[in-house]
Amino acid sequence: MKTLLSLLAAVALLVWGTHIVRTGLLRTYGASLRRVLASSVRNRFAALLAGLGVTSLLQSSTATALIASSFVGQGLIATAPALAIVLGADIGTSLMVQVFSLDLSWLSPLLILVGVVLFLSRRNTTAGRLGRVAIGFGLIILALQLILQTTQPLTVNAGVKTLFATLSGDPLLDMLLAAIVTMVSYSSLAVVLLTATLAASSVISPEVAFALVLGANLGSGLLAVITTMNAAPEVRRIPLGNLMFKLVGCLALAPFLGVLTGWLSAIDPDPKSLTVNFHLAFNLALAACFIFATGPVARLTERLLPARPKEDEVSRPRHLDPVALDTPILAISCAAREALRIADTVETMLVGVMDVIRRKDRDLSRRLRTMDDTVDELYTAVKLYLTQISREALDEREGKRWTDIVSFTINMEQIGDGVERILRDLEDKLIKRGASFSDAGMAEITELHERLVSNLRLAMSVFLNGDLKGAQALIAQKVEFRERELAFADTHLQRLAWNTPESIETSSLHLDLISEMKRINSHLCSVAYPILESAGVLSSSRVRPEAIEPPAKAAAAAEGTAPRSTTAHVAHAAQPKAQP
Fold first, then answer.
1. CA nearest 72: which of 240, 283, 223, 291?
2. Could you give the C-alpha distances from 336 to 392, 455, 525, in angstroms and in order?
3. Residue 401 contacts residue 329 (beta carbons within 8 Å)
4. What is residue 3's three-state secondary structure?
5. Of 154, 163, 216, which Cα lies nearest the Cα of 187?
6. Tens of pLDDT along 251-309?
7. Planar angle of CA 317, 394, 126, nearest 5 degrees
8. CB atoms < 10 A from the CB of 404, how many?
9. Nearest-angstrom CA–CA distance, 316 and 425
10. Taking the model in full, what pTM does it have?
11. Fewer CB atoms inside 10 A, N or C side of the chain?
């Protein structure tokens, strides 16, 4: 039992090591690796080589396949080049299996030592993140050594031999078992290396090892399909095409495992070498057979998974790439793009308000109000997406951007609610009653509306660029907007005093409308505060310094001559007097 537990722990350490390497490299060089994949689509062979190189670094063909899938979903690359990328990714995994199958026991302690020193001393720098990657590579090598040491006693145990002997009966059953283990461990690399180690210890025969290798490849294809199950059809095409490649290859080779054993034994009869060589040969054969079939397979997956109609995707996020979550700086960029899409929707709603007023179009008002549901859904999607970003992996600047995006989306959602309230009021108090604003009142509302739209576009620019001058201009507009709102409220009251019929009829609506516009403008101007605070030009209080009493003086006034509040005074008077 203790030996089995040690083996499972060593396998878990192997999986953890591959996870550390993958996430560490994505966080450090994720943007560069994604650019390599995105720019490799000039021909299928370049795409294959790009997938090979990226996967050799990430230690995960599944991760590379998911990145390529996200590119297809965003329309950055076509389906056929992405399928070539995943063919190269499988070869990259095979080459790394070849590397780790060598005797690297001397390298493990060196990598772990250097990695720990770098990670602890320079945690939030590129060197520190590379130290984390070095720790991952060291753990992979260490885990392989532990697996080898643990399996040696198992080779002489009769019960273990009987257990593994059951695997030699049916290649399809062996493939199914390996596929399940691969999906559970999220690493075909780990399963193939474990299989090679078991073969080297004579625990399993070469034919069983070959079947397990095929199952590991099949499991990695299934894992990508399951991971993208709820994604857009364009994203799901790449895992489906890759699974087709692997399924055809596995079914074609399953009846000939014994023959393949004899052929590969002529190159190197060592069981461990046989296993890793078969893994490499299998993926090379897949690439050779299907590299020219990526086009037809791409068209087949497009027919099986057609794109959704555009109108059905209005409220669906377009830029929140789940694969980018492993690269926080990219994930933040995705969230910022989706936040700007929310702002674009709010702008459409706001611009349409004047058309509703001028044309008294109830149908247009209702269509604009339904757009607030889109704003709410996108806001929720961005918020949930941001919560999945690892805050520990963010430096100070990235953490501030994370906060700015949260604040911006909250303000946009509040503005959407404000515009919806305006539209409801217009339907109830203007369109339904057949009322109209006076010419002077209409001119005032038009001027405030134009200022509001202009400030919204300025706020979007400030959020996008972080421009200090733009932020200062936005705050200046807040002051001017407030002054105009007060002035227009005063002139409206004057028109009421002059008994202007239209003003009397729309008085409540007019005052509510300009008040709501002022509230919306305040939300817009909130975008400028983080930038002004970072620049050190934001005062701690808007009250003039001479109007703020020192704490000691204020306390003395409260105890002495300063009048009590009405509540405090009544409470004091209500207390019963002491009996003489």
1. 240
2. 19, 19, 18
3. no
4. helix
5. 216
6. 999 888 888 888 888 888 888 889 999 999 999 999 999 999 999 999 999 999 887 76
7. 125
8. 20
9. 28
10. 0.66
11. C
